[in-house]
Recover the amino acids of this structure.
């Protein structure tokens, strides 16, 4: 399988280069040149297959020319070590719980796959790979935990001082080993800018093998298609159409759902649900695509003003805006609406986190306007990960899952970075 750049379809690279580079040299996103379509006969067998068995089929179809059968099995087994249950919330409304992994957010799927694949691809190289990531919370914890102890890879995480929840911070500052956390005296955008400058600095890149592990990397993006196949196979078969609603920030998650659809999964409708960072819903409802600076909300992992995976949505529909707008409906919600939904759904016995609540709102709005659907919203994080907001909104005390509580006991270790690229460059240049 080859990958092309969304900025230049003639620029093509193999899997290893796409994964190690992350972003194409022309700043485009890598996309598979061909999308394999699974047969209906195979899809019809998915309800009887396990999550991993489904994973072998889907990843096998995508990567069989680049990886051996053994490698594909190893990758899928390493990624799918926890379940993604489909839980009924209301009649025809289901929650796809993606928070049963080690850091309690869906990013564990992509981070685990990415770390394993990167370690396979660098095995033969004698150079150490350095993964640089900027995080506003969940990416740092998922990437750090995915890469912890992986040979030949060192992870450097930049995060904005005081802008990350205590729990999120603990999940990437207490690990040690091959994980280093750099505390930046600024906001998330400053961290992101420093990382971007590092990738563009010729001197640094001559000396170090630098790569990224955010959702633009195909190794993080592609494995997210697996839980769409799995969830679809677990829905009751009563002849209704199927909608998936995805609470979205950078739009990597929903783009992976569309990849599953292009691979033959008969999803009838996508719903892109956001908080007031509503660039894409506005676009889907007829406005021009207009990036903005991000606004802080209670669903903070979706506070993105310039969604980086947007070109993938268009590319997956052959750059046909009309087809994209038919397949994906956009909705956005305020914090008050999000809180009201959390309270209402709690009454029927289900606890939403603020991100899942945005997905639930989008799904139920779509279903109110369109009859004959059953729908799934993606519950992207455990409510305990946003404990303060959830406890305040619902007026209750949450029990923290054991693996989350364990992080709270570790000791925080960070390097202070000030703000600006020169400090980061100085730090990286001194690395052995
Ligand atoms: C990252 C994140 C999102 C947004 O996912 P995208 O792929 O960036 O659209 C939603 N919810 C949670 C909890 C997240 O951590």
């Amino acid at each position: 399988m080859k990958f092309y750049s969304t900025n230049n379809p003639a620029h093509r690279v193999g899997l290893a280069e796409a994964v190690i580079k992350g972003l194409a040299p022309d700043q485009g996103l890598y996309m598979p040149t061909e999308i394999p379509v699974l047969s209906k006969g195979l899809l019809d067998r998915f309800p009887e297959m396990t999550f991993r068995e489904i994973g072998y089929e889907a990843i096998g179809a995508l990567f069989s020319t680049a990886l051996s059968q053994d490698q594909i099995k190893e990758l899928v087994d390493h990624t799918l070590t926890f379940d993604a249950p489909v839980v009924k919330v209301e009649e025809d409304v289901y929650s796809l719980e993606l928070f049963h992994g080690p850091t309690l957010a869906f990013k564990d799927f992509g981070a685990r796959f990415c770390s394993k694949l990167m370690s396979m691809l660098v095995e033969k190289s004698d150079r150490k790979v350095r993964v640089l990531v900027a995080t506003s919370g969940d990416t740092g914890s998922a990437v750090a935990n995915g890469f912890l102890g992986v040979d030949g890879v060192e992870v450097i995480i930049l995060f904005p001082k005081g802008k990350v929840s205590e729990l999120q911070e603990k999940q990437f500052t207490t690990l040690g080993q091959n994980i280093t956390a750099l505390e930046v005296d600024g906001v998330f955008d400053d961290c992101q800018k420093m990382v971007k400058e590092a990738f563009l600095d010729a001197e640094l890149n001559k000396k170090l093998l630098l790569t990224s592990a955010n959702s633009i990397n195909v190794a993080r993006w592609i494995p997210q298609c697996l839980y769409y196949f799995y969830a679809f196979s677990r829905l009751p078969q009563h002849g209704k159409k199927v909608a998936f609603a995805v609470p979205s920030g950078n739009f990597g998650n929903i783009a992976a759902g569309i990849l599953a659809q292009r691979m033959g999964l008969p999803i009838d409708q996508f719903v892109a649900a956001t908080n007031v960072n509503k660039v894409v819903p506005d676009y889907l409802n007829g406005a021009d695509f207009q990036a903005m600076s991000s606004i802080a909300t209670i669903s903070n992992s979706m506070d993105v003003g310039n969604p980086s995976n947007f070109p993938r949505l268009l590319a997956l529909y052959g750059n046909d805006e009309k087809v994209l707008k038919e397949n994906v409906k956009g909705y956005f919600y305020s914090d008050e609406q999000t809180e009201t939904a959390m309270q209402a759904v709690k009454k029927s016995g289900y606890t939403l986190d603020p991100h899942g609540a945005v997905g639930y709102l989008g799904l139920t709005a779509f279903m109110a306007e369109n009859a004959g659907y059953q729908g799934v919203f993606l519950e992207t994080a455990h409510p305990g990960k946003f404990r303060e907001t959830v406890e305040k909104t619902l007026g209750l005390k949450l029990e923290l899952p054991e693996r989350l509580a364990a992080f709270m006991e570790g000791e925080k270790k960070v390097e202070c970075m000030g703000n600006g690229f020169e400090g980061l460059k100085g730090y990286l240049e001194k690395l052995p």
